[in-house]
TrEMBL record:
Ranges where the Protein kinase domain occurs: 14-269
Record-level Gene Ontology MF annotations: ATP binding; protein serine/threonine kinase activity
EC main group: transferase
GO annotation (BP), single: signal transduction
Organism, as annotated: Salvia splendens (Scarlet sage)
Identification of the protein by name: non-specific serine/threonine protein kinase
Keyword Ribonucleoprotein: no
Reaction catalyzed: L-threonyl-[protein] + ATP = O-phospho-L-threonyl-[protein] + ADP + H(+); L-seryl-[protein] + ATP = O-phospho-L-seryl-[protein] + ADP + H(+)
Domain NAF: from-to ranges: 293-317
Pfam families the record matches: NAF (PF03822), Pkinase (PF00069)
């Protein structure tokens, strides 16, 4: 790509290059970081295409949330999310090797190569499960290869997290790709997220080794019937060890289906297996902040999405409807000092009380117990914080006359 200065680059940071792919709601471009020269992939989403599609919005929110936290050598890395008034830019790791599906389309793989990719797949899926993340749409099209031909799992848009599990201990949302879907999903009685991922891993392993799907039929209902009954046949060229493993992966009974721990002990799988070590400190970007209960550093997307003028908050965060007015002040001060000034102002007012929700979030209540002001502090950088203030209509005097002047004695740099 031809060199561009930062002034002509996207957000003065990324130089957009050729189109890599195009979907129903997004386009993906190759791009380059102007400062470092690193190649990235940028998913470009126009807000206008999301307005009336709650499911699509939910998928994007979920994908960003999961990928921003997940750190593993065999997952596609999300670097940051940026936005303008009309467009969202999701900046991702650029995986040069393309889809694993393209390799399989040329013919079946050797058992040794199947084992390599299956070991990497099991390693990353097991890592996700240990952190309460279930992919729910594993298939060769969502498995990419890097320049060293190592696996990278992508597309977490249909993933579920442990918080979505119902009181019966199961997930209930119907999702997945027909040929890779587990039989218990077809039964519509709830399912274990880990078990359906294991089934999909089994289908993927079969496809890699055979070159075709284990359950296939031009008629969708016939294909579902085969899946439900577990009707498949391994080709004669598969080794006995591989056949045994596939029979346990594609067990239609989720309670007897092989577990991740058992897969790792299987003789066919274990040959040459090296478990990828992932440091806990690298798994979740915000883990340390959460454990220490200190304010989380905000990236550019966090700040942009908070702006009511851009109206992106409805896409990625819940709106607090109990408040009508929102103001944000950027202050050159520590979060602790800001909260001390809020407490000082509230005490001076006398007729109000503070209720702490989180370490850097409080609500100020009137004598009747009604919440008048809600405040939360976010760290913008080592030097600055953003103070978000929410007030009910007609109840902004406490903020505007008492608290805000105290904060503005410091070097406030922006209000919006």
């Amino acid at each position: 790509m031809a060199a561009l200065s930062s002034e002509t680059a996207l957000f003065q940071k990324y130089e957009l290059g050729r189109l890599l792919g195009c979907g129903a709601f997004a386009k993906v471009y190759l791009a380059r970081d102007v400062a470092t020269g690193q190649e990235v992939a940028i998913k470009v989403i126009h807000k206008s295409r999301l307005r009336n599609d709650a499911n699509l919005i939910a998928n994007i929110k979920r994908e960003i949330s999961i990928m921003s936290k997940l750190r593993h050598p065999h997952t596609v890395r999300l670097y940051e999310v940026l936005a303008t008034r009309n467009i969202i830019y999701i900046v991702l790791e650029y995986v040069k090797g393309g889809e694993l599906f393209a390799m399989v389309a040329k013919g079946r793989l050797t058992e040794a190569l199947c084992r390599k990719y299956f070991q990497q797949l099991v390693g990353v899926v097991s890592h996700c499960h240990s952190r309460g993340i279930y992919h729910r749409d594993l298939k060769p099209e969502n498995l990419l290869l890097d320049e060293d031909e190592n696996l990278k799992v992508s597309d977490f848009g249909l993933s579920a997290i442990r918080d979505q599990v119902h009181s019966d201990g199961l997930l209930h949302t119907l999702c997945g790709t027909p040929a890779y879907v587990a039989p218990e999903i077809l039964a519509k009685r709830g399912y274990d997220g880990a078990k359906i991922d294991i089934w999909s891993c089994g289908v993927i392993l079969f496809v890699l080794a055979a070159g075709y799907l284990p359950f296939n039929d031009p008629n969708l209902m016939n294909m579902y019937r085969k899946i439900y009954k577990g009707e498949f046949r391994c080709p004669k060229w598969m080794s006995p060890g591989l056949k045994r493993l596939l029979s346990r992966l594609l067990d239609t009974n989720p309670s007897t289906r092989i577990t991740m721990e058992e897969i790792k002990l299987d003789p066919w799988f274990a040959k040459g297996y090296k478990n990828t070590k992932v440091r806990e400190s690298d798994c979740f970007a915000f883990a340390a902040a959460e454990q220490e209960k200190r304010p989380v550093d905000m990236n550019a997307f966090d700040i942009i999405s908070m702006s009511s003028g851009l109206d992106l908050s409805g896409l990625f965060q819940e709106k607090h409807v109990s408040f009508e007015d929102v103001e944000r002040v950027t202050v050159e001060e520590s979060p602790k000092k800001v909260m001390e000034k809020v407490v000082e102002a509230a005490k001076a007012e006398g007729r109000v009380s503070l209720r702490q929700k989180k370490e850097w979030e409080v609500e100020i209540e009137g004598q009747n117990g009604n919440v008048l002001v809600g405040m939360e502090v976010y760290r913008l950088s080592e030097k600055y914080v953003v103070v978000e203030v929410k007030t009910k209509s007609g109840e902004s005097r406490l903020w505007s006359d008492k608290i805000r002047p105290l904060l503005m004695q410091e070097a406030a740099v922006a209000c919006y």
